[in-house]
Amino acid sequence: MSAKNLFISLLTLSLLLVVGMTYFTITLFLQGDSLVATLLMVTLVVLIWRLTIFLKKHYCDLKLGMPIGDERTRKVRMYSAGYAYFISLYIWLTILMFHKYLEYDDALILGLLGMALSHGLSWFLINRSKGIE
Amino acid sequence: MKTKIKELRARYNLTQKQLAKEVGVRRETIGYLEKGDYNPSLKLAAKVARVLNSTMEEIFIFEDSDLT
């Protein structure tokens, strides 16, 4: 996949993610589930902020003819996906333990948010770590 | 791991961005390489060595403690 196509794919995915989350947040607000909706809204703001920085950086690189990804970014992505998968298992197990106290939708949202957060955190920590091989 | 990328880059008057473009990686990766914070693949090490008219042994210096 060329760098331009990759950037367009990333942009499209980001827009879909933001539109989907906005729709979901509004729906939850209208249904009266303001706690989860507020949680989602905060996540959405952070997500938009991070995505804007991410996409702007990649757009500048694309204009300069630099690659969007290289061997280091691929390694960071692989390691962070591995760690996030491992952490996600425990997040879902924890949610399963407390499923009696949670609504079905809330449990699903918490699980998905936990997965996204664990991936973001893993990526952040691994990207800063030294001596990646 | 220590590297001589910064010195050689200065010798050939190359910026991090130019070197990154030559070897096909992101500028940040060159920064990590210069600081010795990233162990490159053989392919990338060879590319860097070729662009800087040097050998891999001259550019990437491993001490005994790095290899244990």
Structural commentary:
The complex is a heterodimer of chains A (133) and B (68). With 133 residues, chain A is mainly alpha-helical. Chain A folds into two domains: 1-69; 71-133, no CATH class. Helices cover 84% and strands 0% of the residues of chain A. Chain A has helices at 3-31, 34-64, 71-97, 104-128. The longest helix of chain A has 31 residues, at 34-64. Chain B has one domain: 434 Repressor (Amino-terminal Domain) (Orthogonal Bundle), CATH 1.10.260.40. In chain B, helix 2 crosses helix 3. The radius of gyration of chain B is 11 Å and the shape is globular. Classes of the chains: A mainly alpha (133), B mainly alpha (68). Chain A binds chain B through residues 61, 64-73, 130-133, and chain B through 1, 17, 20-21, 24-29, 32, 37-41, 43-44.
Descriptive tags:
heterodimer, A: 133 residues, mainly alpha, 2 domains, 4 helices, 84% helix, B: 68 residues, 434 Repressor (Amino-terminal Domain), two-stranded antiparallel ribbon, 2 strands
Helix and strand topology:
The complex is a heterodimer of chains A (133) and B (68).
Chain A: H1 3-31, H2 34-64, H3 71-97, H4 104-128
Helix pairs in contact in A: 1-2, 3-4
Chain B: E1 2-3, H1 5-11, H2 16-23, H3 27-35, H4 42-51, H5 56-59, E2 60-61
